[in-house]
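Hi there,

I know you've been waiting on this one. I reran it after we fixed the sequence typo, so this is the corrected version. Both the input and the resulting structure follow.
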Amino acid sequence: MRICTDRFKDRLAESVILVMIQLMHDTPNGVQEFFIKVVPIIYTDIRGRTVHSDQYSVTEHFKKSELTPLDSLPGVYFFYDFSPIKVIFKEEPISFLHFMASVCAIIGGNFTIAGIIDSYI
């Protein structure tokens, strides 16, 4: 199974780089199947710029014909599955108070873990 995703050249996706694969098989007859799943994505950065893109995954499967060559014809099949769910990434600024609460939670968690470890020792 090979997973392919959109890759962003910079923080805002101006272009998409697709992963290319080359397949070689020992059997002359067979069926090559590709299952392609596509999920739409909307990315909005902190300045409000929006990029509409797609994320996809590809799974390939090869089924060889082991009986006679006339039992099945060789072929390549593409099966597309478009997701009805849209993924939305949105950057939002956090307040200083939220940042300080997160820092205090991390420090408090460290003290709690240290206390648990100290009680066992």
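Quick highlight: Residues 74 and 119 are 68 Å apart (CA to CA).

Best,
R. S.
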